[in-house]
Amino acid sequence: MAIPPQTPHPPPSWSRSVTETVRGSHQFTVRGFSLAKGMGPGRHLASDIFAVGGYHWAVYFYPDGKNPDDNANYVSVFVALASDGADVRALFELTLLDQSGRARHKVHSHFDRALQAGPYTLKYRGSMWGYKRFYRRSLLETSDFLKNDCLVLNCTVGVVKNRIETPKNIQFHVPSSDMGRCFKELLSLGIGCDITFEVGDEKVRAHKWILAARSPVFKAQFFGPIGKPDLRRVVVEDVEPVVFKAMVNFIYADELPSIHELAGSVSMWTSTVVVQHLLAAADRYGLDRLRILCEAKLCDELTPETVATTLALAEQHHCAELKTACLKFAAVRENLGVEQKCEAACHCKHRGRVRLSGTRQNDLLDPLDSDGPSF
Question: Which family does it belong to (predicted)?
Fold first, then answer.
């Protein structure tokens, strides 16, 4: 007789009950304590309402005590439920801050210790927990808790919450963001382009609204008070075409292009020269993230041959971290001879122009004298 196949048992189901506290704190300052005295037992000063665990709370301070039988010998402090709720379970901590700086605070806390009856239950709106005899007033008035007629109370509430944990059988895989790739594809296909930049002998097409969203200079040029939203053509001077195209690609993709590929596309240019030009363009068009990325890359590529030019560039474009890196590089004993180059570079800004290595004589960048791109 054939034995029928056994049916596999389903995996056991499970659930977990988790009880925990949702904590929040509020600092309540009482200024003019001496003026608050005499308001009478049972009358209080109330803090602003604050939210913890889905409920509203308030701190009540009684300068003459809450209980008339104490004859104003004690100050009273209570935490009150200030929103609708029934059987709200919570833990509390009240701290009177020592203002001498010695951190000898007076603390009444229910956290981190076992409570025989568990958390406290507040039955309805207006229910309170606290101390009628929180501190003897005669001692308070001569203590470090009172300074410049001011008291500071810190209240922490921990609302008890319960939740059920069950196995998550469905898992979602969220793909990484491809927004930069989509925008870059839009640029490469020329879909919807409404502005053309003439850079040297090349033309670069783009979208005004994307450029304006990323660059304050483009935003002012196209949509500012004296901007020209109908502009279709812009002539760009003093920026190499390869550098301008790399900057536009960064605006769309938000990532640094391949510097080595860019350097290979221009005869006699090194990657350092490309990044130097790109930093100048980023500063000119208000692209802070691109400028900082270029600073970081130039720091990594410092050599005795490039440090002087990079230092001069940092001076002109107010790149404090890059300038510091150049000076530290020049101070290393192994780089002796660099100091004289750096000293000369530091004074380049007084001549108004910086000669970037690898550029033609008529392609000098002059960011100090430039007000931005040609509109």
Answer: Belongs to the Tdpoz family.
